[in-house]
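Today's session is about reading a structure prediction critically. Students often jump straight to the picture, but the first step is always the sequence itself: look for stretches that repeat, for charged clusters, for runs of hydrophobic residues. Only then move on to the predicted structure, which in these notes is written as discrete structure tokens rather than atom positions. Here is the chain we will use throughout the hour.
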Amino acid sequence: MRFLAIFLILSLFISCDKTQKKEEINKKGIKREKTTKKVTASNFKLDIQIKQKKFYSIFNSVNDLTIISRASGILERFSGDIGKTVKKGEIIAQIEGNQKRITLESYQISLREAKIGLDFQKKVFERDKSLFEKKLISQEKFEQSENILKTKEISIKKIENQIEATKLSLNYHTIRAPFDGVIASPQLKEGVLIKEGSELFRVVQNSPLETTIGLTNDVIYELKNLKETPKVFIEFKNQEFEGIIKGISPTPSTQTQLYSTKIELELNDGEQLIPGSMTTIKIPIKKYENAIRLKRSYLRFKEGEYKAFIFDNGIAKTLKLTLLDVDDSDYIMKPTDSTETSFKIVISGVDGVDEGQKIEIIESENIK
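Below is the predicted structure for this chain, in token form.
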């Protein structure tokens, strides 16, 4: 009797275990396991999608000026480190000019003395003129007084010219930024001897910048189909700027068969792109309305048809898609038979997901 009871208990346990392992069958006849698939999903909505053509090019300054020294002497001060942003008129370097300062002071002293002498001679001339009119002195005496006055006036004019020339020459010892921009090579060191005519450094205007790229005939064709010339997007170190197509050559190069195209970038306040930097340029060439942009890894392709899986109250449902275009690694697509405008699409863990399967979102991203 005891063995019979044990046998009945074991039979009941085995029967319950088999029941738990059975597959559930839904109303459509699709088999579905109780196991829930964990996935990552993201929200997508139908919107305008732009196909872009990508290029790599270096932007250079429209204004790139090499500063040439117009004075000789020891470099007393230099504050023009490479990459430093400077404002127009800002002092960048100072070349020693003590001797010229001494000369300038000497001329200024001479000018003050000459003006005193001129004032005195004017009084003498007025007196001699009065005496000559009264015929109290000879004409020779009067003309002599007049010549002395003119000589002193000429002498003062000469000293004034010397002062202006010395000031101008001394001004060459102070090097200022010719415009707002960025300091470029070479790097100078204080204490070195600077010779007149030597290259000191470059100042490049950080805006506007320009570059030239070559466009193929098919890109030119796409651009002509657009209603207006599109804005160009320039990427550099996680920054994005807006540029414009400044001009396209009417004929292609005989060597490359590419159309020379000038791109110009005007930086806004707070934006910075160092001239000479390699950038990524994206030119919009096609526009698709009511479309979404997906990665190939989000999709399944079977029997000539693309599909993705959407999250619908914890259940995976199929979203059939039509491929419109490929933009780099992105697929520009349109729902084939859905009237919805937004979808929560599975983007990770797609393998192993089937229609009607239970899914659990472990991570969700914002609408793209």
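Discussion point for the tutorial: The two ends are 71 Å apart (CA to CA).
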